[in-house]
Amino acid sequence: MTSAPDRTPTRRRVLPAGGNGSLWQARPSCGIFAFRGTRLRIVVEDPSEVLFPTDCGLSLLSALDGDGAPVLEGVSALDVGAGSGLYSVALLAAGAERVTALDINPASVAQTVANVTANGLDGSRLTCVTSALEEYTPGERFDLVITNPPHLPYDPSYARGDGLETALVARRGGRAVYDAVVDRVDRFLTPGGSLLMAHSSLADIPRTVAELGSRGYETETLEIFEMDIPLLAYAEHRETLQLRLKELRAAGRAEFDGSRFTVHALLFRRPGGAARP
Ligand SMILES: C[S@@+](CC[C@H](N)C(=O)[O-])C[C@H]1O[C@@H](n2cnc3c(N)ncnc32)[C@H](O)[C@@H]1O
């Protein structure tokens, strides 16, 4: 399986096979998780339109709760592909000064606002933007960009045309949103700022690390999580999806072992400026 892209010894967690949702604090349907001492709840009203957070998304928060995670108090953050608002809620609860939640899906933006409000957080610290990342021109730079991009390769046979597809599937072998983040992050981050990414081993981690590294970004792997490939939403297209993934693996662009893959909680620091601790 994938090795860490830097030299720091990295904690590896193996999540149980045969399910998803093991990182929720209670049953997944309750949507309860703890982050930096606060108990938070995420609700998704229409799971075919807005992704109910998976272990892949939760793994980044779990890593951010661990040793060596960056300070979040007082930061201004951009949540790219906010989905249910999982990261926006957690960041505001952890003391972020301002969070901008961006998603191409208007239902995600509405769900993010609802979850921020339902958790009793100050909505005046949240800005919501419905836009593709590729078309977004912010009027400011952020200390932190956080994202868990879609990571499954697109195939026309399983195109659903709904929000769940937008959340899970991407063109260019599942890399389209990763590429958009890598291409644009310099426009969004302050010098010395951090990009926090849940990076799937199905979407060519070495390429992201190499491209950002060539621009002077330092990479730190906070944790690696091994888990099942989330095929549930695509159960009837399992064979096609696995075929696409095997093609990517043969081309050196995906790493997985049977039904297991890894998600790397990556912290990239932009060079320059006075880096935050
Ligand atoms: C894997 S989901 C992550 C949702 C949430 N952050 C989480 O971890 O549970 C990816 C999100 O990215 C959004 N998205 C997909 N393509 C996008 C694009 N080009 N620009 C902005 N958002 C996009 C989807 O609508 C979806 O909400």
Topology summary:
Blueprint: E1 11-14, E2 32-35, E3 38-41, H1 55-64, E4 76-80, H2 86-93, E5 98-103, H3 106-118, E6 126-130, E7 142-147, E8 152-153, H4 163-168, E9 169-170, H5 171-174, H6 176-188, E10 189-200, H7 205-213, E11 218-228, H8 238-250, E12 256-257, E13 260-269
Parallel strand pairs: 1-11, 4-5, 4-7, 5-6, 7-10, 8-9
Antiparallel strand pairs: 2-3, 10-13, 11-13, 12-13
This protein binds S-adenosylmethionine.
Features:
8 helices, alpha/beta, 13 strands, 277 residues, 9-stranded mixed sheet, binds S-adenosylmethionine, Rossmann fold, globular
Question: How would you characterize this protein structure?
Answer:
By secondary structure, the chain is of the alpha/beta class. The protein has one domain (11-269): 3-Layer(aba) Sandwich (Rossmann fold). Helices cover 27% and strands 26% of the residues. The chain contains eight helices and 13 strands. It has helices spanning 55-64, 86-93, 106-118, 163-168, 171-174, 176-188, 205-213, 238-250, and strands at residues 11-14, 32-35, 38-41, 76-80, 98-103, 126-130, 142-147, 152-153, 169-170, 189-200, 218-228, 256-257, 260-269. Strands 1, 4, 5, 6, 7, 10, 11, 12 and 13 form a nine-stranded mixed sheet that branches. The longest helix is centred in the middle third of the chain and has 13 residues, at 106-118. It starts with 10 loop residues before the first strand and ends in an 8-residue tail after the last strand.
